[in-house]
């Protein structure tokens, strides 16, 4: 088995475990939808402030459910000392990080997609030609969220911190992602394209690449004793 | 048996490290491990020939688990040299991991997966050729074949421990580390496990077991050592000692290091 | 060991004395010597505290955490971890003062305490990042594990800051292009002198606090080392 097939074995194991347990997936999707719903009560529907706020609502919901997704990624390893079992295997620590990362990418993206669809429906957002741009934003945000989320989920698992603390650890770090995604989705909905967004898409790309590299470099230190 | 005598004996076995005749299965020299200011291991020396079954006794907090964690690369030594099968646990960690199998009171099993799925997953991680065949034959050997498609969460503690033995044997390790394997098992399960472990002795596989149960620890081992306060204070071949009085020896050793608190 | 310790004490005292003189000079210059700004009035004087604090907070304070975190991961020496944590603690305090003085000044200048000014907003995000860092340390117990995990946080947090600033700056300039010039005012040469002295004084204050805090950490660690030794000796009783 190669680097990638071993990482994939971890992904498959995690997804099977997750689907049989199912509780986290359901709760993360529901939380995302609830955030979208609850924020709706704070603004007068149909007003100008409502249309400005809705992008923020979308990405807040994405962030909250995303933290649940990544927080779960090392939880399954806590029972029966499985993290040690995994570390005993003669696999590169990068394989473990990659496996956990891919699992998170899948979960965060899928949940993000559901939230996006729900949001367009209840806020009556006419996506029109913006769907491609929104999907691209979702991909970029998913990568950034999962990259740092996976790293800090391992940190949090190392100190037995709860999900609330994980939120405190990663939300400040994710701010560029939220600003960029919210700003660009507002643009997209007002009929512009990402080509007119100047540096914005690149900030997200740089963010993703930089933290992917940093996370790979430091992950060893997080898991090794 | 005085502490002083035991120490000189340990020093003697350390000296023989200088000119090894057979390649040692495990070689530990002046191993120290600190956790901040807590010194878990304070200068441990050990040389094991291939095929030896060593049992390490010691009270709680003596450093037994830390020692096992160092041998299995889960924790890095603060100081000293540790070789497994000629490979350094720090520099050649991946090579050491291929050679070591660990059974502890933690089973390292996923409750949501079936017995077979657990073994297949780990077989992939260890790159075991024909992983499925290997998993099936081990399931048969551990008497779990009929339950292999059930989720591990539904297994009894004894079954889980047997599956964890199968997991540790998947890659046919040269060195088997048994860290308190009997913890949490009822009498029946302990006896079954003892039989399973006896069945593993084939003269080539080196085994290190830690326990504080003297009965289970003495059965079938070649060598006994006592670890107290992060140091070996006793290290003998079983053939050379009177096993019936070992319990007394053990308490004397532990007692001298740890006088009763007044 | 004792020699190194007394040398450290000497340095702490030297830097402490210099800091005291500089801070006194800074106070006098900022409050008495520098002229009152024409449009903003005396409230502008908070700038002599705000700007140097912001400089330490956004610059050296957390860059030191970053550099020492890398040094710890590379060498594994606990002293780097102690100095990094000391710098983070002082950084959080300086960041807090930056935020408070910044929003007090904002109230004078803009009429509101908070106006999403890019540097101030970045400082707020920074504050959250490093409170997170200290929180992680607080729950992680003691020893190498805490040092490793917080070093990882220290590195990632520092790398994040420029991206945070860039994105906040872009976001604000696109909505309110005028904001960038709003803070400018004509600097008299006496004002520049006062500011420079305050800048040096606060830098020394940071250095001095850093040394005092790191020395405390070192002593704490020595004490717990001695405690551990004592416990072992007591347990072994008459044998030793």
Provide structural commentary.
The complex is a heterotrimer of chains A (225), B (262) and C (240). By secondary structure, chain A is mainly α. Chain A is built from nine helices and no strands. Chain A has one domain. In chain B, helix 4 packs across helix 5, helix 5 packs across helix 6 and helix 6 runs parallel beside helix 7. In chain B, the strands form two sheets. A six-stranded mixed beta sheet of chain B has the order 6-7-8-3-9-10, sandwiched between helices. Chain B has nine helices and ten strands. Chain B has 262 residues and is an alpha/beta fold. Chain C has 240 residues and is mostly helical. Chain C has one domain: Four Helix Bundle (Hemerythrin (Met), subunit A). Chain C starts with a helix and ends with a helix. About 2% of the residues of chain C have low confidence. The interface between A and B is medium-sized, with 25 and 30 residues.
Whole-number count of domains of chain A = 1
Structural class of chain A, by secondary structure, is mainly alpha
| Overall body shape of chain C | globular
How many strand units of chain A?
A: 0
Please state the CA-atom Rg of chain A, rounded to the nearest Å.
18 Å
Biggest β-sheet strands, sense, barrel of chain C: none
**Strand composition percent of chain A:** under 5%
Order of helices and strands of chain A: HHHHHHHHH
Number of helices of chain A: 9
What is the domain total for the residues of chain C?
A: 1
Classify the helix fraction of chain A into a percent range. Answer: over 70%
- Report the uncertain regions of chain C: 177-182
* Biggest interchain interface, per-side counts: A-C, 33 and 30 residues
Query: pLDDT under 50 segments of chain A (min length 5)?
Result: none
Question: Count of helical segments of chain C?
Answer: 6
